[in-house]
Records
---
Amino acid sequence: MIKSTFFAVCLVGLMAGTAWAQDLTATQKAMQAGNEQYARAEYTAAISSYRRVTVSAGAAYGQSLYNIGVCYYELWRTDEAIAHYRQAIAFRGGRYPQASHALGVALEEKKQTAEARAAYLQALAADAEFAPAHYHLGLLLAQAGEHRAAAEHFRSAIRFSHDTIPAGHNNLGVVLAWSGQMDEANREFGLAVRQTNGTLTEASRNLELSRTIIDATATVKSPEWQLAAATRRAER
């Protein structure tokens, strides 16, 4: 009796494994087609391809929901993007940092700042080293006047991106300048300028202004520091 039960369990496992392998092949084809269409900016076609991924594909289904959201976002159909990001996050049990970050970006576009902040925090709860969420959260905090907290998130964005976000240096410099730490701010502006060969105009202007203030050994009244805004596109 025990032996029969053992074989029954193995048979179910083999059958499930065969179905899973077939489904995975279909999933791979659908995802590849969608990715290629996305790369060609054929977003509506990509959505159709991603929709061929079924819930039985497991984690790939959550990714397909996220990718559909990204496509809707590229089509400026932000509400539909938000809905799919939320579905992807829910499918992954709340632990999908890319989708949570993308959700935050979309919510910011809708001027839902508190909800966007919560989305970035959700991304960081899932992955404390997710640099884009640190960067966007830093922007929100800086704009809200929470300079110390913003500085910490910009530092984290720089560290966890392996120093590949020059705008992070510029924005860290801005919040340091707002806090009166001009020497440190000047250093950050200089790093941003060097990393971008002067193409980040906000950093170049801020560096010039910070040097003027330091050279004059006096504070310029209400200097207009410029944050480098994030791009619209979500990290995919």
---
Amino acid sequence: MEAPSGAARPYIVGIGGTTKPGSSTEQALALALKSAAADGCETRLFGGEFLATLPHYDPSVETRTPQELAFVAAVRRADGLILATPAYHAGVSGLVKNALDLMQDTAADARPYLDGRAVGLLVTAYGWQATGATLGSLRSIVHALRGWPTPFGVTLNTGSGSPFAPDGTCAEARVQEQLSTLARQVVGFVRQVGLRQA
């Protein structure tokens, strides 16, 4: 779906990954954002290395770090988001959950949390059992943050090996199509509902 001529570019924020450089979770997220960029969007990735710099969320702290402020500012600006987490014991990783908890700083905004925004969801796991439970949990979190989880969620079983090459490309056409579908649904929602009003 192409944007009308002269229309603003949707801003899509990706959040996720692990502390392991080049993790399958972060590679999948990067490819989904690449599909959004190819569809005319501006994108920003907050990967595992960045998320690891965020302090444990503390609602009583009045002064945030530069990293926390940059993260919250990007979420506020976002027209849509893609969240990616590994399934750790059938749940969202602490690294990703800590970042999502920081969205509480937007509670008093005119448009709090993820209000009215499409959110694509992506889960990786070492086996299939944990993917469904974690995807369901992630959907519940997005609902609590007033976001709209896309109908299509991506679950990837990396137990038999990662479908991603060291250069970031995907060796499996089926996985690439799933990631592209996820991005299309996020971007399509943004364009149908309209970009965030400044």
